[in-house]
């Protein structure tokens, strides 16, 4: 049997190496944290202390690593496998990296008469454990056929996509859909939770209907049961979406759904969820609606509207603002004026602003914060008006607000709220 040098024993790599051992391959394993190979030692693997040592006597070297930089270090670095490779060997990278990184490695190894295949996988941790991964492969097709037995020990579907970098292109397109599908599931579960319905019953409808997806099958119960143990981390999901965004930019291809998904997963990272399963992004939606999915609540219709409004967490403020108000003129032009206002409330749905100037419902305004806030002008729509003496209170719904700006706005408001809070004691 072939000897496999296996580098990277994380969530995916470790069970993949286990399957190779169970299928009779010899495995020489390397991982930065040696203890992650303990279970492999019990199954007969050997461990080494550098990537180069893992490659020295191997017929095939497999890498399953986290980022482009880590892959380049382990393959082309000072102690990387390139220092120990010999002509005729094959390197298979199962990591998710940019196509440019895959093509660079292919060129470097070709100069040493070594074949390189970019062969990212889909199937997450369950697929790695069960040997049911799907491979999408770029590189020389002859090299794939030479080592088809290795792929068949790890997966049930092996798809040749084309020359070097093709596998990486396919994986980024695939994971774009994974991120978008996952958020579709989260939004549906959030809607029924906010409506007071049972999310688990709703999930049974999804799984039986046309809204079903692999993400619903893999992540639905994890969300309902609040089990965010890692199958595929939120941080890695975001990394892949960012790489996909770079590819889309290179093609000058508009990708609005990719951009929206990236923004929400960035918010998940900002909440400290990077090391949890990507399903933990539901916590962003839970923050917005003030409820947890999977925790039964009363139907909102059973509560008076005023009580429902009080449930929304509000922060009392007194922040001076300027508002640009634009009026429609003849011949398709606008004229504008600048008025004073004060931000008094921030809620999950928008802003509450007071002003002495009368405005109309559904009017759009541009909100200018103090310079210290370091915030761009924000566009809002007046959705509610309440007159109080010679002043007006305007409920203002923000529109087109990027996630990173929302986070910045919340941080600024929090700092002003804390600064104005009465001292204790």
Topology:
Elements (H helix, E strand, L loop, with lengths): L2 E5 L5 H10 L3 E5 L7 H5 L3 E2 L3 H6 L3 E4 L4 H9 L13 E4 L5 H12 L4 E4 L2 E2 L1 H7 L2 E6 L2 H6 L1 H7 E8 L3 H29 L4 H10 L5 H11 L9 H17 L5 H15 L11 H8 L15 H7 L3 E14 L5 E14 L2 E6 L8 E5 L9 E11 L2 E8 L4 H18 L5
Parallel strand pairs: 1-2, 1-4, 2-3, 4-5, 5-6, 8-9
Antiparallel strand pairs: 7-8, 10-11, 10-13, 11-12, 12-15, 13-14, 14-15
Helix pairs in contact: 1-6, 9-11, 9-12, 9-13, 9-14, 10-11, 12-13
Family: Belongs to the HIBADH-related family.
GO molecular function, one term: NADP binding
InterPro entries: 3-OH-isobutyrate_DH-rel_CS (IPR002204), 6-PGluconate_DH-like_C_sf (IPR008927), 6PGD_dom2 (IPR013328), 6PGDH_NADP-bd (IPR006115), HIBADH-like_NADP-bd (IPR029154), NAD(P)-bd_dom_sf (IPR036291), PilZ_domain (IPR009875)
Could you walk me through the main structural features you see in this protein, from its secondary elements to its overall organization?
There is one protein chain. The chain has about 425 residues and is α/β, with parallel strands linked by helices. It has three domains: about 5-165, NAD(P)-binding Rossmann-like Domain (Rossmann fold, 3-Layer(aba) Sandwich); about 170-290, N-(1-d-carboxylethyl)-l-norvaline Dehydrogenase, domain 2 (Orthogonal Bundle); about 315-420, Beta Barrel (Thrombin, subunit H). Helices cover about 40% and strands about 25% of the residues. Strands 3-2-1-4-5-6 form a six-stranded parallel β-sheet, sandwiched between helices. β10 and β11 form a beta hairpin. The radius of gyration is 27 Å and the shape is elongated.
